[in-house]
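Chapter summary example.
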Amino acid sequence: MLFRSKWVKRLGIQPNEPGFIAAIPHLLCLRLLVLVAICLRFSLLPEPLYFPSSARIVLELGIIILAVLAAYETLRPALRESTTRQHFYLIFDTCLISASYFFTGVPQSDFFLFYSLPIFTAVEYFGGRFAIKVFAGISIAFATVLVGLLHSLASQTPPSAIRFLMLFVPREVFFLSLILLWAYLFKSRRQREVQMRQLMDFKVDIDTLEDVALILPRFVRAAASITASDGSYLWFSPSYALLSQTRLSYPPTSLFEKYSPLIHILEQRVNATGAPVQVQDLDSHSLSTLAAFSGIRSLIFLPISAEGQLAGYLLLTSARIDNYRTSAQILEALASQFGSVLDRCRLANTREKLLRAFVEIGTAVTASTL
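The structure predicted for these 370 residues follows.
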């Protein structure tokens, strides 16, 4: 564990960073394994007659350059974050794999599996939609390689459209399936990464604020943005002293009149357990009769604590089912930050009152002396 923490600190690895699984740079490992496999293929097996020595030198030089660059940039956080460099790797990987595939002289070679590397890179760094564009580029490169190989072997087996399709289509289906699977696996990870970034942005945004009126809208907007909510409401207990002279809800709404039975039950459950209440499908829940007219399909209801007491509540609603299945932990972190800010505002408010009292005392003493 100590070695792992030092490794993470040295490399500056961020949570859910693309290219890493935990502290393991799996994309770098995969890229190096692909390069080693290419080198072993041409070292241990015979080469085709059309593979000139100059082409082998260029190929080996490209492998060395790619391996050194990939290892060096993995150790540099600022370089890893560059999208330009990732675009370079996508192009370089595709060209190098295509050239290696062509020089095997075998149309049915397993080298087509190496195209998985740019697919994984595209999905992790740019998402599924961009990976589809990369898939199109890989398909063009792969088709070009197959046509070249079939023509180079024309003296042995006449090229035909049927043979090309028999080689091309199954592998294309494999690439597309790989993109869809990898995009699905990394979707939640990317969402988590975006949520953590929004959480940090909220912390930076309110770090120096001491005015509750300015903080409330920022908190409500941050909670709604992080969870992609359709509705977000915040209100405070009447007994919470800091806001005794401030409006008790944000935004000002008739929510309490409209949803009062639902809110009353949610408050009771939170007060009893101290934990958030989640409803992933309101239509099939016991609370459905209390909110059937509202268009709400899922909701989450969180307590806001400050100064060691229950200060208020946050209600987030969505018209989508299962919108909050993975949001409870990040929302609790957000609520904890907000509670700390309220504590800071209370201290600032107390300090302001003390200063005002000291000024009044000093004025009174001065007036009595005169």
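To summarize the output: The two ends are 71 Å apart (CA to CA).
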